[in-house]
From TrEMBL:
Keywords: Glycosidase, Hydrolase. The lineage of its organism: Bacteria, Bacillati, Actinomycetota, Actinomycetes, Micromonosporales. Residues 51-444 form the Mannosylglycerate hydrolase MGH1-like glycoside hydrolase domain. Belongs to the glycosyl hydrolase 63 family. One of its GO terms (biological process) is protein N-linked glycosylation. This is Mannosylglycerate hydrolase MGH1-like glycoside hydrolase domain-containing protein. SUPFAM superfamilies: Six-hairpin glycosidases. InterPro entries: 6-hairpin_glycosidase_sf, 6hp_glycosidase-like_sf, Glycoside_hydrolase_63, MGH1-like_GH. GO terms for molecular function: Glc3Man9GlcNAc2 oligosaccharide glucosidase activity. The keyword Nucleotide-binding does not apply.
Length: 454
């Protein structure tokens, strides 16, 4: 919370006195107003400034919140995203709004050139994907508003959700070990996490490349809070390598510069099969294959990405076949898998409660995205320290699934307190709770609605 501001209690929730809404009803109104302001004909933009198009996993989180207040929009949100699904089943991480001017966001359609690839939709998109939280979002949207229209929407989405999973299993299992490989840090959702420093260090970014573009993000946010220019140049080099290969996943092992098995992505991959099993039951399909695949993914995740010495999960760099040593919030997210073995689940709770992350029944500071005790912890820079509601929300689900309701309650209070103190910001300072990034961020508003509803 804000330094020097003592907490007050609103409806049993500890919040800071920083001029935020004075009651939980006010918080709910703030969240609804934020989502309404960011609604764009058939989807919700993450923010009107930094992210004016449609983003994949943003839409999933947004649908969960919309289901509480605008259930028809929740289904339109997911349906519009999956209209941009490629023929191979991938769901692109950006769907560009053709009504916006060229240059409204960088890298825009002119960088991605998706129309040149095979099996792409009739709208410009990126060629990357993001964590497959969409099946879970669809299931939760239905649970939040279980009516015939929602069930019909769920039935319509099911084949597309299955195709998304099939793409990841068939095209992205580069090592042949049952896990998905991401081909760019942006696919993890945690764009500039310290977890990617080692794999990205080998990616070339010549000075000429760094001069060949103009960033959009630093026009709307403090550059000290965003990835560095060198990081950004490397990101674009990896995009260009994938694009110039036609976004074809065949042959990735031979030459693509970034190949990593990510704990969060694969936890979402496994959780999606669990959600699909429940959806299958609802619409009269066989849940058995989904449950079997969920078990296989969980087993592979433990076997490949769990480090027993560190007591946490870590990404595996397929270029070196080594686990990355950085201890980030990525390592805690496998808690979202309901069948994660007790040994690993217990170890993750120990890790979460350590000084590195500070999870507690009465949390003094928000959950950070990187080890607080690490020398490269940066409390202001994007995913290198700040607190985000979406990672906290995923971990809270895991705590509940593995029998830690008091810790889950502490995390919930902390997340609600962040928004009460600073508003629906994109992310927050992990010590003071000051809002960072976009000031009217959609998934923060949506997940706040979900937390308030409980």
């Amino acid at each position: 919370m804000t330094a020097g501001a003592g907490p007050t209690r609103l409806g049993g929730t500890a919040v800071a006195r920083t001029g935020g809404p004075a009651d939980l009803a006010g918080l709910r109104r703030l969240a609804v107003d934020t989502l309404d302001a960011n609604w764009e004909h058939d989807h919700t933009v993450p923010s009107r400034t930094l992210y004016p198009h449609q983003w994949s996993w943003d839409s999933a989180f947004i649908a969960i919140g919309l289901a509480h207040v605008r259930p028809d929009r929740a289904w339109r949100e997911l349906t519009s995203l999956f209209r941009a699904q490629w023929a191979d089943g991938r769901v692109p991480h950006i769907v560009f709004n053709p009504a916006l001017r060229v240059g409204a966001y960088f890298p825009g359609p002119e960088m991605w050139r998706s129309a040149n690839a095979q099996g792409t939709p009739d709208v410009d998109t990126s060629g990357l994907v993001q964590p497959p939280v969409h099946a879970l979002a669809a299931l939760l949207a239905y649970r939040r508003a279980p009516d015939p229209a929602g069930l019909a929407a769920l039935r319509q989405l099911y084949p597309a959700l299955v195709a998304q999973q099939r793409y990841l299993a068939d095209r992205r299992d580069v090592a042949g070990d049952g896990l998905v490989c991401i081909v760019h840090p942006w696919e993890s959702g945690l764009d500039n996490s310290p977890a990617w420093d080692e794999p990205m260090a080998a990616v070339g970014a010549e000075a000429a490349v760094m001069r060949a573009y103009r960033r959009h993000d630093t026009a709307h946010a403090d550059a000290a809070h965003r990835p560095t220019d060198l990081d950004y140049a490397r990101y674009l080099a990896v995009v260009a390598a994938y694009r110039d290969h036609g976004y074809d996943d065949r042959g990735l092992a031979e030459g693509h510069p970034f190949l990593v098995e990510c704990p969060l992505f694969n936890a979402a991959f496994g959780a999606a099969e669990d959600a699909l099993a429940e959806i299958a039951v609802l619409i009269g399909h066989d849940p058995g294959p989904h449950r079997a695949r969920a078990a296989q993914i969980t087993e592979a995740l433990v076997r490949r990405l769990y480090d027993p010495d560190a007591g946490t999960f870590q990404p595996r760099d397929l270029r070196t076949d080594r686990l990355v040593s950085a201890r980030t919030v990525l390592g805690l997210t496998p808690l979202m898998l309901p069948d994660l073995p007790a040994r690993q689940a217990d170890a993750l709770v120990v890790e979460a409660r350590s000084a590195r992350f500070g999870l507690a029944r009465h949390m003094e500071r928000p959950l950070p995205t990187h080890d607080r005790t690490a020398p490269d912890f940066e409390p202001l820079r994007y995913w290198r320290g700040p607190s985000w509601l979406n990672t906290g929300w995923l971990i809270r689900r895991g705590l509940l699934a593995h029998g830690h309701p008091e810790l889950a309650a502490g995390l919930r209070r902390s997340m609600i307190g962040l928004v009460a103190g600073a508003g629906c910001h994109e992310y927050f300072h992990p010590d003071t709770g000051v809002g960072l990034g976009s000031p009217a961020f959609s998934w923060t508003a949506a997940l706040l609605l979900d937390l308030l509803a409980e």
